[in-house]
Amino acid sequence: MSARPADLKTERSPAASSRVKPWGRWGLRFSAFGYLGLMIILPLSAIIERGLKDGLSMFWAEIASPIAFAALKLTLLTAVAATAINVLMGTLTAYVLVRYEFPGRGLLNGLVDMPFAIPTLVTGVMLVVLYGPQGTLGALLEAEGIQVIFATPGIVLALLLVTYPFVVRAVQPVLMEMKRDQEEAAYTLGASKWVTFYRIVLPTISPAIVTGALLTFARAIGEFGSIVVVAGNIPGRTLTAPVHVFGQIESENVRGASAVSILLLALSFTMMLSIDWMQRRKTRGGR
Amino acid sequence: MPRKRTGLIEWGLIAVVVLYVAALLLGPLIAIVWGALSEGVNLFLREITSANALNALRLTLILSVGATVINTVFGVCIAWVLVRDDFKGRQLINGLVDLPFAVSPVIAGLMLVLLFGREGWLTPISDALGIKMVFALPGMLIATTFVSLPFVVREVMPVLAQAGIEQENAAYTMGASPWQTFWHVTLPSIRWGLLYGISLTLARAVGEFGAVLVVSGGVSGLTETSTLFIFRSLDDRNYVGAYAMAMVLALISFTILMMMEFFKKRTGEGS
Fold it and tell me: According to the CATH classification, is domain A66-284 in 1.10.3720.10?
């Protein structure tokens, strides 16, 4: 969940430690490969095999079934909505945390990490207590005709909470390292604060914003714990794709579960690969 | 570094962020404390000390410590191979480590059911060994280990690279064994990064729900972790029980978060 994929170029030791004896190195290599193979490659292969072994037409049939399709659509829509809001508020949070001094800044900075620590199921329970029909705030909103829990807004809210740190933690270090002379120059030349931000700060931090957005999206399409409590899970209306996968496992339709899973995995792997690609391009572009 | 003059716009932006965080993060936190204690402290205590709740907490402890130990050992090993070793396909292995972040927990659970369930690829092996994987503790341990796999690797890699190999080579020259070198030279230089990775792993493992839900079968008292306890209590409309356990888990997470912040600061200072 840490918002910085490793950068191999800078994280290489210059001369690989020649002093470690060959058998020791092979032992370590073997353990590392073996562990990753057993824990990651084998399970992934199993799910791909199960989803595709009855042929592509069955795979598509599972995905195009009305309930699965609606679930995938809902997952994509809510993930896009959460990502958009997160980009805006996350960038603003990072900016405020880096550039301004105010009482409680340290506390705010610490709070940002909270969603990484709190179990997502607990996040869902919290939202139900606050916005659910039994909660004070929930009753108040319901009187106004706004339903949060067991409806789409609840899903977006849960996603926002769970993914809040990604954009903040991606943008913050870039803002901290950014030199201020260009901004000062723009000010001196009479540019307004907004123009300065738009023309000078934004271009510098935009790769970090994109990284944060991709992480948010990848996390959002897989989110389960908070949504299963908050959404109500009505097929065709508030059932998201991961909850649909769970339902299919429960009703022993392993092929259907695997098919939707493969699609979700393909999406989030694309996100991860894009982040990796951006990171490498940045390193190659020199400093 | 922060700008000195704080005008109206600045205060406005600060207010927006503070209000957003208060509404998004603090509101729900206060709500859960209120929800757990609204029926009185006695009921809260009775729920959290019930046999099922205590069993669930114990199982969560066993699973998260187990997963953390496994991932610490293999995580350091993988980090070492990625930083210090040289072989073709390092980039690929490096990317592989991040995959659990991109996999929905439910899908992680499904993978294990496919491997160890009926007609699973590995079922003959686990049957031959007499180990029950699905709907049992070993499967839940693997599920928890899978979702928390990347943290130690990701946190140890940068500090290991930064530590360099000069000191290690000096130790070798003076006749230290590889194990002595690791224990007395390498480990002390990576300790804060490692501890930060361990606390992240622990936090993730304590809170794991989706993967464990799929694998466990949810037999209360036997394969029910704390998060599964919350889920079942909600289903049974035992709201005080669910909220009480949720509050306890939130408290545990907060403690781990404090540890994380402490170790993270030390990691920064160590350089």
Answer: yes
